[in-house]
Amino acid sequence: MKKLTVLKSLVVAMIVFLGFSLTSCNDERYEPIPVKLSDVDGSYKARLVTSQGNKFNEKIIEFQAKDTIITFKDFPVREIVKTIITDPVKADTALAHIGKVEYKLEYTSKINASQNLVELTFEPKTLALQIPVDGVTKNAVVKLAAKQKGFFVGYDWSLRFGLEAEKITVDGVELTPYQTIKYDVPISVKN
Length: 191
Hints:
Helix 2 packs across helix 3. The protein is 21% helix and 47% strand. A hairpin with a 2-residue loop joins strand 2 and strand 3. It starts with a helix and ends with a strand. The chain has 3 helices and 11 strands, in the order αβββααββββββββ. Strands 1-2-3-4-5-8-9-11 form an 8-stranded antiparallel β-barrel. The chain is an alpha+beta fold. It comes from Chryseobacterium wanjuense.
């Protein structure tokens, strides 16, 4: 009988001890690491969603951010070329001749400490392309714009932004009718 009482007392003491040890865990809170402007720098792999009207295309792209410039070694120009050249076979031939197109997107940044992110304000430059079709080279100038700010989010260390090809001019003549081409990067992660 005495052994049973001692055993019960030990079990009760153990349960009380475990209860107190688990409640101490409730006081710990997540403290995010504050972002710095230099945190934006790095190589990224991103999901790019390209849309024009009701047509959508998704693909994985890579780019680098360094010293207030995002560099695309292979900027996606497929939709631009297919807007200029409506024949799909000729457009694919032109894309093969053009190859990879490098584009540099400049930005300014500022820290938003209350939300633990870096806000990016973009300053897109025009994109010039020489498109070979039917033995002639067409000179295309694409006016790119950024309607919204981009964000480097401190919570998951991702970069998010979007661009639009607002207007395309071919050999000095503006394409009309024209549907805006949107490039959205809803999420990108550092490599």
